[in-house]
Structures are given as C-alpha cells and as structure tokens.
Amino acid sequence: MASESSNEIAKQRNAAKLNDVQQAIAKQESNIFAKNKARSVLEKQLKDDDLAIAKVAKAISDTEQALKDTQQKISILSDEKKQLTSQKLTQEQLLAKQLRSAYTTGQHDYLKLLLNQAQSEKIQRTITYYQYMNKARIDEIEKFQATIAQLVTVSAKHKEQVEQLQSLKQSQQKQRTKLSKNKDSRSKTLASLGKELLSSKQKLAKLKADEANLAAALQKLAALIRAEVDLMGLSKLKRKLSWPVKGRLLRSFGSKKQGYLKWKGVLLGAPVGRQVQTIHNGTVIFSDWLKGYGLLTVIDHGKGYMSLYAHNQTLLKSVGDQVETGEPIALVGQSGGQDQVGLYFEIRHQGQAVNPRLWCR
Questions:
Q1: Collapsing DSSP states into helix, strand and coil, what is residue 260?
Q2: CA 21, CA 277: separation in Å to the nearest integer?
Q3: At 60, is the secondary structure helix, strand, or coil?
Q4: How far apart are CA 225 and CA 238, in angstroms?
Q5: Is residue 271 predicted with pLDDT exceeding 90?
Q6: What is the dihedral of CA 239, 245, 251, 254, to 10 degrees?
Q7: Does the chain have fewer CB atoms within 10 Å around its N or its C terminus?
Q8: Residue 186 predicted with pLDDT over 90
Q9: In this structure, are residues 263 and 249 in contact, taking their beta carbons and an 8 Å threshold?
Q10: If we measure between CA atoms, which residue out of 268, 270, 328 comes closest to residue 299?
C-alpha cells in the first residue's frame, strides 16, 4: 500500500511538472508565426485532429486487447465445458452400472437373508457390504451433482463471454468508423496547410522554431526531473539496444534536413498502428502533443540520457509511468503534419542529440 501511495504522489508531482512545461511551451508557441494567423489557426486544427485520432486509436487498442482477453477466456471455458461434459457422461455410466448391480444382487441377497436368519455372521457381512455399496453410490451421486452444477456455471460464463465478444466487436466497428472520419478531417486540414505555401526561408524558420521549442521543453524537463527510481543511463549499452520499432530507415542522423539544419535523430518507416517500444527502462517525463513533433513521448533513462519518440498515432503511457525495456509506449502514426507514416526517434545526453546508431543494432 505504501508503494502504491508513493507512486500516486510521484505521478501527481510529475503531472504538475508537465503542466509547468506545457505552460512554458504554450507561451513560446504563441510567439511562433504570430504574423501568419491563418496558418496558426490551421496548425491548431491539426493538433485537435491529431488528438482526436489519438483518443480513438487508444480506444481501439484497448478494445483489441479486450477482444484477445475475451477470446482467450472463451477458449478456456470451451475446453472446460468439453471436459465437464465428458466427465458427466463417464459419471452417468458409472452410476448406471452401480444401480444395475445393486438391483440384481440386492434382490437375491435380501431374499437369502430372509430365508436364512440363523446365519448371523453372514447377515452382518452382507449388511456391511450393502452399507459400503450405498456409500459409494452416494459419493458418485454427489460428484455427479457437483459436475452438473459446475457445468451449468461454466456454460453461463461461456455464454456471457460470447455476448461480451459480440459487444466488443460492435464497439470496435464504431470506433473504426469514427477514426476514419477523424482521419478525413486531418487530411482536409493538411490540404489547407499545403495551400499556405512556405518559402525555403520560411520552412527553415519553422523547423528552427520547432527545434527550439523541443529544446526548451527538454531543458525545462531536465531541470524538473527528480529521479523516483535508480536509473543507470545508457553509457554502458552501446550497440546493445534494439530499435524502438521495426522499419526501414528513411532519414539518418546528421543528414540534411532543410538549409543548414540536419536531422538530430532518425526517421523509421513503419505501418500505422505498429507498436513503439522503449529502448530501455526509465520514467516517462513527457507524453503530449508538441508542435512539429506531433504526439511525443520522452523517457528519462538517468545519468542525463533521454529517448524521444515522435509523430505517434497515440500514446500508451502517461507522465510518471515507469517503463521496462521493450514495453509498448505508443503506436506508429504521422501526427504533427507529417506527409509520411513513421517514427521519429532521438537519443539525447545532457540535452545534446547523439547518433542512435551508436546504441541500437
């Protein structure tokens, strides 16, 4: 209980920290593209579209897990039902055999007892035998009744889970319809943004502003971090970590981005909805939408090391959550106005971006 209370306090503290960071980001964002109000409105709409998609995608992810759990329960209950039905049949046959035996031998022996009352020793043995047989029958009847009761219970549970499965499938269909509508809305927003053409100079300014926004957020997060668990960083894990998602490398660390700007991470192409896994254990210190990066998760690994996972479809973890190596933290998407699906991934040490290839293999 003390551990749960401590975790809850830690989550509340981290939530308060995130709120401070979000306020700082909001203040900075209000100064970005202030003169281009039309584009600012569209970017705000893009954020709303991304968050709407994230909400439905998270619901679909939860529903899919519930479907798997329900199907597994149905499978277990089906096996149990078959086993109980077979057990019931065996008990019926055994009970019928005992009853037939008792009937045929009972008539004969009782008749003898009536005609040979002088043989007290034989009478006693016969009574003992009947008592033994009667107890055996009672035991079998009780077992049979227990099997019937258990079978009724299992059958009811099986029916309940089948109905639950149908309900989940209907819910999933509604969620997918809603997701499709939200995606259509985002496509229209992106099309409108595309009409607000930017010159190379404006694109460079936008990317610089986005990077500055991220750097400011990370700097503030670093100042607020207070380790709740002992994290050992990534310094001893070079070439030992797995990539957060399986996919084709679309952009490499250090390659040209726009003008003199270079990629500070890598872009990995992967299908929408594929799970994004954390590269190492740590604490989630940011889990929200950020201009230029869409739905973003940042994990603190200790000793000044952080990993960033951007442009997700939805986020599966909240600020303050402790995550283990390989644990799903998000689903691949293209939030933040990206024209292609994929995961943007960075590793940073003391605020500076480092080449992920030095750590991941």
A1: coil
A2: 24
A3: helix
A4: 24
A5: yes
A6: -30
A7: N
A8: no
A9: no
A10: 328
Identify the bridge partners of residue 331 per DSSP, sorted by sequence position.
Answer: 275, 314
Distance of CA 110 to the CA centre of its chain: 70
Alpha-carbon span 54 to 134, nearest angstrom: 67
| pLDDT, tens only, 277-313 | 999 999 999 999 998 899 999 999 999 999 999 999 9
- SS3 state of residue 303: coil
Lowest-confidence region among 63-67, 97-101, 111-115, 207-211: 111-115
Which residue in the block uniquely carries the two structure tokens 């939530």? 15
Sign of torsion over alpha carbons 207, 209, 214, 218 = positive
Average pLDDT in the 330-348 region? Answer: 93
Name the burial class of residue 279, with classes exposed (0-12), middle (13-18) and buried (19+) by CB atoms within 10 angstroms of its CB. Answer: buried
The Cα–Cα gap between 339 and 298 comes to 22
Question: Residues, the chain, total?
Answer: 361
Q: Across the chain, where does the E strand assignment appear?
A: 248-251, 256-258, 261-262, 266-269, 275-277, 282-290, 294-302, 305-315, 322-323, 328-332, 343-349, 352-354
**Confidence category of residue 36, pLDDT binned at 50, 70, 90:** low
The CATH classification of domain 199-361, taken from the options 3.40.50.2300, 1.10.1040.10, 3.20.20.80, 2.70.70.10? 2.70.70.10
The answer to whether residue 35 scores a pLDDT higher than 50 is no
pTM exceeds 0.85, yes or no: no
Listed residue (361, 298, 291, 302) closest to 329, CA to CA:
298
**Domain ranges within the chain, ordered by starting residue:** 33-197, 199-361
More confident residue, 200 or 167: 167
Architecture of domain 33-197: Orthogonal Bundle (1.10)
With both helix axes pointing from N to C terminus, report the angle between 2-29 and 200-224 in degrees, rounded to the nearest 10.
150
Q: Would residue 121 be called left, alpha or beta, if left means φ above 0 and alpha means ψ between -120 and 50 degrees?
A: alpha
